[in-house]
UniProtKB/TrEMBL annotation:
<dbReference type="InterPro" id="IPR002347">
    <property type="entry name" value="SDR_fam"/>
</dbReference>
<keyword id="KW-0560">Oxidoreductase</keyword>
<comment type="similarity">
    <text>Belongs to the short-chain dehydrogenases/reductases (SDR) family.</text>
</comment>
<dbReference type="Pfam" id="PF00106">
    <property type="entry name" value="adh_short"/>
</dbReference>
<dbReference type="GO" id="GO:0016491">
    <property type="term" value="F:oxidoreductase activity"/>
</dbReference>
<dbReference type="GO" id="GO:0016020">
    <property type="term" value="C:membrane"/>
</dbReference>
<protein>
    <submittedName>
        <fullName>Short chain dehydrogenase</fullName>
    </submittedName>
</protein>
<dbReference type="InterPro" id="IPR036291">
    <property type="entry name" value="NAD(P)-bd_dom_sf"/>
</dbReference>
Length: 235
C-alpha cells in the first residue's frame, strides 16, 4: 500500500514500539494519529516527532466509552495499529484483581473495541489494514512463569486476530488483518510495571518498526498476515 496521504491510528504511539512505528510511518509520508492515555506524554511525543503529519488523541483503552467516542471523533482511517499494552510479572495468587482487569482491558478488550469501532468503515470502503501487536508470548509455544495474565491477554489478541482474519476473508473484502508477534524488545514496558529486568540485549524497537512499515507498504493484495520476529538466542 502506498502510504503517502494515508492516515494511521497507532495506539500506544507515545512510547516504545508504537513511537518507532509512528516515526517510520511519518518517514513514508503517512499521516499519523497517536493514541495514548496520558495527555502530557502524548504531547511530549508530538513535540519530539516534530512533524506536521502527526496529531494525537488522549484515550484510556480501559474504557469502552472513551474508545468509541475517540474513534468517532477521528473519523476515517486507513491503517490501525493496535500496539498499546501493559505487563505484570507475578505469581497468580498474589496478582491484584485491579491489575488483572487492567491488563485484560488494555491489551485484549482495548484491541477488540478499537477494532470493532474502526472496521465497519473499512469494510464499507473495501480498503484498510488492521495490525494487532501480539507477542511471541501469544503463540502456542508461549507461556512463562509469573506472566499468566499477560500471556492470557496476548493469547486472546492472537485468537481474535486469526479469527477476524478469516471472517473478513470470507466476506471477500480488501481489508487486511495482520498479526505481529515480536519477542523481547528494549522498551519501557517492563520498568513501567515496576519490573527490574535487563532488557539491554532485547531487540531494538526501531528495527522491529522497520519490519512493520515494510509489511504495511506491500500492495493491498499481499498480506504478511502472521509475522513472528525473535532475537537470535545465541547472541
Ligand atoms: N517490549 C517487549 O518485550 C514486547 C514483546 C512482545 C510484545 N510487546 C508488545 O508490544 C506493544 C508495545 O509495547 P512496548 O514494549 O513498546 O511498551 P511501552 O513502551 O510501554 O508502550 C506501551 C504503550 O501503551 C500505552 N498504554 C498503556 N496502557 C494504556 C491505556 N490504558 N490506554 C492507552 N494507552 C495505553 C502506553 O502509554 P503510557 O506511556 O502512558 O503508559 C505506551 O504508549 C505492547 O502491546 C506489548 O505487549 C512488547
Amino acid at each position: 500500500m502506498f502510504l503517502t496521504s494515508k492516515t494511521a491510528l497507532v495506539t500506544g504511539g507515545n512510547s516504545g514500539l508504537g513511537l518507532e512505528v509512528a516515526k517510520g510511518l511519518i518517514k513514508s509520508k503517512c499521516k499519523v494519529i497517536i493514541l495514548g492515555k496520558d495527555k502530557a506524554k502524548v504531547e511530549k511525543a508530538i513535540f519530539d516527532l516534530k512533524s506536521n503529519l502527526v496529531t494525537s488523541v488522549t484515550c484510556d483503552l480501559r474504557s469502552q466509552t472513551q474508545i468509541e467516542k475517540t474513534v468517532q471523533q477521528i473519523g476515517d482511517i486507513d491503517i490501525l495499529i493496535n500496539c498499546a499494552g501493559i505487563i505484570a510479572y507475578q505469581p497468580l495468587p498474589v496478582h491484584d484483581s485491579k491489575n488483572i482487569r487492567d491488563i485484560i482491558e488494555t491489551n485484549l478488550l482495548g484491541t477488540i473495541y478499537v477494532t470493532r469501532s474502526v472496521l465497519p468503515t473499512m469494510l464499507k470502503k473495501n480498503s484498510g489494514t488492521i495490525m494487532n501487536i501480539s507477542s511471541t508470548s501469544g503463540l502456542p509455544t508461549g507461556g512463562s512463569p509469573n506472566e499468566s495474565v499477560y500471556v492470557a491477554s496476548k493469547f486472546g489478541v492472537s485468537g481474535f486476530t486469526e479469527s477476524l482474519k478469516k471472517e473478513v476473508d470470507d466476506q471477500k473484502k480488501n481489508v487486511r488483518i495482520l498479526g505481529f508477534y515480536p519477542g523481547g524488545m528494549n522498551t519501557q514496558l517492563f520498568s513501567k510495571s515496576g519490573l527490574t529486568k535487563d532488557t539491554s540485549k532485547f531487540m531494538d524497537p526501531a528495527e522491529i518498526a522497520k519490519i512493520i512499515v515494510f509489511m504495511l507498504e506491500r500492495p493491498d493484495a499481499i498480506k504478511m498476515d502472521h509475522v513472528v520476529v525473535n532475537r537470535n538466542k545465541n547472541l
